[in-house]
Amino acid sequence: MRYRTIGQGLKVSAIGIGCMPMKAGMASYGPADDVESIATVHAAIDQGVTFFDTAEIYGPLENEELLGRAIKGKREALIIATKWGFRFDGETRGTGIDGSPANVRRAIEGSLQRLGTDRIDLYYQHRMDPTVPIEETMGALADLVREGKVLHVGLSEASAATIRRAHAVHPVAAIQSEYSLWERGVEEDVLPVTAELGIGFVPYSPLGRGFLAGNAIPRSQMTPNDWRLHDPRYAPGNYEANLAILDTIRTVADAKGVSLAQVALAWLLAKRPDIVPIPGAKRRTTMTDSVASADIALSVNDMTLLDGIGKPAGLRYPEQMLAAVNI
Question: What is the pTM of this model?
Answer without folding.
Answer: 0.96
